[in-house]
Amino acid sequence: MNQPDGTQVRSTVEPAAPATTRRGLRAACLLAALAGVIAPALDQPFSASPARAEMQGTDPARPATDRELLADFIHYTLIANYQLARGKGGEFIARQVKPRDMVALIEAPNLLGENQRARFDEAVSRALKVENVEPIAASLMRLYRAGKIELSRDADQIAEAIGLLTQTERGRLLGTERLRAAGEYAMPQLLSVMMNTRDLRERVAVQQVMSSMGPHAVQPLSAALLALEGDPVTQERIAQTLGDLGYAGAAPALAEVLERTTSAPVKAACERALARVSSPGTRASAADLYTAQADRYYRESTDVTLFPGEDFQLLWDFNPSVGLTPTAIRTPVFHEAVAMRLAARSLALKGENPDAMALWVAANLKRELETPEGYTNPAYAPSRPDAMYFAVASGPEIQQRVLARSLDSRNTTLSRRAIDALSRTAGGRALWASDIGRQPLLEALRYPNRRVRYEAALVLGAARPADPFEGSDQVVGILAGSIREARERYAAVVANNNEVYLAVRGNLEKGGFKVLPFGRTLGDIEAPINSVPEVEVLVLANVERDRVAGIVEEARLPSARLASTPVLVIAPQDSVNDLRRQFAGETTVEVRSSGVPATAILRTVEDLVDSALGGAITPDESTRYSRASLAVLRDIAIQGGRVYRIDDAATRLIDALAADGPLSLEIAEVLARIDQAQAQASLADAAKRAQGTQRVDLMGKLAASARLFGNRLEARHIDDIRRYARSANAAEATAASALLGSLNLRNSEVIPLMLETR
Length: 758
Known about the structure:
Elements: H1 22-41, H2 50-54, H3 66-78, H4 82-94, H5 99-107, H6 116-127, H7 134-153, H8 155-164, H9 169-182, H10 187-196, H11 200-211, H12 218-227, H13 232-245, H14 251-260, H15 264-277, H16 286-298, E1 312-319, E2 323-330, H17 331-349, H18 354-370, H19 387-393, H20 396-408, H21 412-425, H22 429-432, H23 440-443, H24 450-462, H25 472-485, E3 490-495, H26 498-510, E4 514-515, H27 526-531, E5 537-541, H28 545-555, E6 567-571, H29 573-582, E7 589-593, H30 598-613, H31 619-639, H32 650-658, H33 664-671, H34 677-689, H35 692-709, H36 715-725, H37 730-742, H38 747-755
Parallel strand pairs: 3-4, 3-5, 5-6, 6-7
Antiparallel strand pairs: 1-2
Helix pairs in contact: 3-4, 3-6, 4-7, 5-7, 6-7, 8-9, 10-11, 11-13, 12-13, 12-14, 13-15, 14-15, 14-16, 16-17, 16-18, 17-18, 18-19, 18-20, 18-21, 19-21, 20-21, 21-24, 24-25, 24-31, 25-31, 25-32, 31-33, 32-33, 32-34, 33-35, 34-35, 35-37, 36-37
């Protein structure tokens, strides 16, 4: 079977030296090895390559072969000459050796007849713990593994392995091992043999292999089972095999065939298989089983990702005239594609199925968000409408369910899409009183991410409810807070000592973050974390390796303020690979070496924030949030009501106005409608700081406040306004005079202005 890129590779590996030369070569290699140890220690140049030394009589000016470069990398790594190892390994990688050729290079004995694979494994293991050589070693190991995968999935290799199944016992074991290594890629040929062979021994052997392939056989066989209604004999065999596998992922297809088949043997086989793959005493409809399985894919459970770490996964279809057909699909959108398929199957069997509908809509939104740039998804035609089309068409109840899913999984970008869909279709009670047993939009007001909180508050604030609801007292405060908080970025650092903390803090501050105080545990900085709007990144700096997982788990508790915050672990080089394996499935946890340059650490932080939170809030975005919040607050102030208290915004609006930002007039517009003396005083203070037309406009807002609530100013403010009324600037003087009139001062306070002559 072709790989996703369709490439075919020929091996160009050089042949090994004849065995007759080995005795002489051993002596040459020993001398070269000693030279490799002694020369670096004396800091003398050493040009002789140990691999080249093995090739007696060769031209020293001849470029090193691939075999020689790889041998040099292994040799220099094993003698701890990492500078030369890095150079040789880098040169080897630059040659872009094909993966299959890499396998041949490693698995062939070296020129001394030694086990090259064991030496390679040992060299890579050591190099992965050395900062400057780690990227080279990781690339070499990836190349080798890619070659092994290519070989195992080669169609000719698979056919050869199937042929071995009916030969000797050793051949059967070898063939089984190869087929299991090929995994899903072997299924089309295995199923074809099972369906078409007339050799009973071969069919039984193939069926036994499929029964031992674990989850790799489940989806291909499920696709075939559903499509083979005209072939009950094969359906019965497939059902038996799925039962032998014992994986719950086969239950939906087995249940569907059981519900619709008219063949008694097929029905009996499905019954037996279902009993083996289902929990004892449980039996659900096919529709419900499809929904449950779709949910496993939506959540990207590890047991449904058959090729972790690979760029592609496989989708399966079956056509009786063609057989099993795999479609390679990029891993970032694989789970969403299968979830949508399974949810659609559930909906086809049971139309009134809100759980399946919400799952399909959520997976479709997630698909759109996670599609790699420029990638054409084979499971979703470009001609189909975008994901929001279906989200808004599904209605408020489904949208609330989608939002609930996204909040539970701490998927910030998906939560924002769900809130956007709600804002376009829902109104009134449908926003804060859903019928699903919880109120997701109200939960969003407490979500750790600011964008989600702001957008939920904007939707609820604009809804103008007639009666209070749970969380209604938070809306005005969140809207007012967005006017200044959106511009601020916070980071938290847990470090093993203050010296490390200060180094990390200085780097983060260069990136524009305000860094919370030092702490060795999350408990040490709990109060600062709760005092800021949002922590955009949590950095664990040189924390003891056995404490890292516990800290991440504590941060991820549903009630924690850091539940959606990405985590950067900075660790010593010798711990990096173990920690990366530990967090391999965590998309919001990144592990970097403590020796990485500060600029690279900052880039990693920004990448984490981008992927987990949608990036930092930009100045333009902050302004949009502020303007939208001020518009809603203004409407709340004008309309009044008994649900939202505009007074709750006063303190934050006063602070924002004191900053003299570009939104001063819009802030003043809302403050002018708040019946508080300090609100009116803040307008007067802002007018005093302003100049020209800005002062004139602010006096107009202050006059509006005076007309609504009367004069609440202090004597100092009145003195300032009298001074403005004497200004040579006619517009300013007139605005001040109008303001004095709005303040309804006593005649004795205005007459002096009338008697003045200029």
